[in-house]
C-alpha cells in the first residue's frame, strides 16, 4: 500500500463498502463484478459521515448495477468453452466469408479468432488481417455477421468517417440496429 492510499472496510448500516482513500477531489463509487462489491474512492479530507451518506444516497443505483451483474456472462477464459465458441464462429464464417467477400469483391482476408478484452473485432488493411472476438459466438450469427462486415469495410475505409458509414449503409442497411443489440463488450 502506498503512502497516499489506504483501505478501510466500513460497517455502515446495511451497505458494506470498501473505502480507498486517495489524493483526489471528489468521491467515486464502483460496483465490482462478479459479486457486486461496492468500492468507494474518496479524498483524504472527506469525513466518514459524508462518505456513508454518499453511499446510502446511491442505494438505487447500486441495486441496478448489481442486477446488471447478475445477468452478465462470466469472463471468458481459454479452455473447453472458448474452444467450443471458436468452433461455432468458424462454422458461421464458412458461410459468411464467401458470401461477403463476393459482395465486396475482395479476395478472402486472413482471419484470426481470439479472445479479445476490449474489441469485438479489428482489421489491418495493410496486411489484410481481420481478427474477430470469439465472444461473438455467444451473441449470435447476426452479430458475427455485423462485425465481419464492419471489419471488411475497413479494407476500404480507415477509421469511422463518413465514407466508412456510407459503405456500412450500402452493404448492411440495418447495421445500426445490430450495433444497438450487440452493445458494448
Ligand atoms: Zn471499426
Amino acid at each position: 500500500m502506498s503512502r497516499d492510499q489506504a483501505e478501510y472496510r466500513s460497517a455502515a448500516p446495511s451497505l458494506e463498502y470498501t473505502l480507498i482513500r486517495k489524493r483526489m477531489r471528489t468521491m467515486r463509487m464502483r460496483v465490482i463484478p462478479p459479486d457486486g462489491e461496492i468500492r468507494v474512492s474518496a479524498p483524504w479530507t472527506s469525513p466518514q459521515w459524508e462518505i456513508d451518506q454518499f453511499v446510502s444516497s446511491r442505494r438505487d443505483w447500486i441495486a441496478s448495477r448489481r442486477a446488471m451483474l447478475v445477468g452478465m456472462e462470466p469472463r471468458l477464459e481459454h479452455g473447453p468453452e472458448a474452444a467450443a465458441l471458436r468452433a461455432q464462429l468458424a462454422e458461421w464464417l464458412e458461410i459468411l466469408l464467401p458470401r461477403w467477400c463476393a459482395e465486396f469483391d475482395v479476395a478472402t482476408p486472413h482471419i484470426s479468432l481470439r479472445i479479445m478484452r476490449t474489441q469485438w473485432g479489428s482489421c489491418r488493411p495493410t496486411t489484410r488481417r481481420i481478427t474477430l472476438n470469439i465472444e461473438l459466438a455467444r451473441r449470435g450469427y447476426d452479430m458475427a455477421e455485423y462485425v465481419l462486415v464492419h471489419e471488411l469495410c475497413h479494407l476500404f475505409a480507415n477509421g469511422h468517417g463518413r465514407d466508412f458509414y456510407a459503405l456500412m449503409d450500402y452493404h448492411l442497411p440495418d447495421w445500426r440496429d445490430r450495433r444497438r443489440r450487440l452493445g458494448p463488450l
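Residues 150, 154, 160 surround zinc ion (CB under 6 Å). Residues 80-104 form the longest helix (25 residues).
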